[in-house]
């Protein structure tokens, strides 16, 4: 019981930072976009305007669903009034993810336009996901146990891509220079999308299992026997 109470206190303290399913739509959009790009003919290259337009619309839709999901958690579990420490943490996270998102966005835009990004640049974009996730985990109190394994998974994928062992590139069965860029683009999209989906589901599981009402003991009381 003490361990359960300690876990509830930790989750309540960092309730603002446990995203739950908020980023699930964004991860699904990125995974779906990567799957769609993988089915396009390799010889045709990337349809820049159409591809970026579809991705942009999907991302906008996912961001619109973000506050909707947040309202669901507020209705189910309530809300926590932000403290001064929480406001400072929020500012650090905005700066951290703003820089990370800017770097990823620039990298994806260059890959989609067919700019000559080498394998090291794709490796850096993959490793950035793991580093950013570990930084988020450290800033928000290091209480969610599923963050480090997912970050390690991103790091292992980055290493595999750097060593030429990227499984997605093998599945594409292409050798042209444009296909190398296509492989990098799909890898970054799929890896970041999968990371967001896994984190969203595990965050939701953490919230539900920790903050759900305690089970009511329905065992009927035994009647007292008169002496």
Question: What share of residues is helical?
Answer: over 70%
Note the beta-strand portion. under 5%
Shape: globular
Secondary-structure class: mainly alpha
Low-confidence stretches: 218-227
**Strand segment tally:** 0
Rg computed from alpha carbons, rounded to a whole number of angstroms: 22 Å
Average the pLDDT over all residues and give the rounded result.
75
| Termini gap | 36 Å
Largest sheet geometry? none
Short description:
The chain is mainly α. Helices cover 73% and strands 0% of the residues. It is globular.
How are the elements arranged and paired?
Blueprint lengths: L1 H12 L10 H16 L8 H30 L6 H29 L6 H21 L7 H16 L4 H6 L4 H35 L16
Helix pairs in contact: 1-8, 2-3, 2-8, 4-5, 5-6, 5-8, 6-8
If you had to describe this structure to a student in words, what would you say it looks like?
This protein is mainly α and 227 residues long. The protein has one domain (11-210). Helices cover 73% and strands 0% of the residues. The chain has 8 helices and no strands. α1 packs across α8, α5 (119-139) runs antiparallel to α6 (147-162) and α6 (147-162) runs antiparallel to α8 (177-211). Mean pLDDT is 75; it is low at 218-227.
């Amino acid at each position: 019981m003490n361990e359960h109470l300690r876990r509830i206190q930790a989750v309540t303290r960092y309730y603002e930072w446990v995203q739950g399913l908020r980023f699930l739509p964004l991860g699904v959009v990125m995974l779906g976009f990567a799957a769609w790009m993988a089915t396009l003919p390799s010889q045709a290259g990337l349809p820049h305007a159409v591809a970026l337009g579809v991705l942009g619309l999907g991302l906008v839709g996912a961001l619109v669903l973000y506050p909707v999901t947040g309202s669901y958690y507020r209705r189910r579990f309530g809300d926590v009034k932000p403290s001064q420490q929480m406001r400072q943490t929020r500012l650090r996270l905005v700066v951290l993810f703003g820089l990370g998102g800017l770097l990823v966005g620039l990298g994806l835009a260059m890959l989609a336009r067919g700019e000559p990004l080498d394998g090291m640049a794709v490796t850096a974009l993959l490793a950035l996901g793991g580093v950013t996730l570990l930084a988020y985990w450290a800033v928000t109190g290091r209480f969610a146990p599923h963050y480090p394994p997912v970050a390690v998974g991103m790091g292992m994928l980055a290493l595999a891509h750097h060593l030429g062992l990227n499984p997605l590139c093998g599945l594409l069965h292409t050798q042209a220079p444009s296909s190398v860029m296509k492989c990098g683009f799909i890898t970054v999209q799929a890896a970041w999308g999968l990371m967001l989906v896994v984190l969203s589901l595990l965050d939701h599981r953490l919230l539900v299992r920790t903050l759900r009402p305690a089970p009511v003991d329905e065992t009927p009381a035994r009647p007292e026997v008169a002496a």
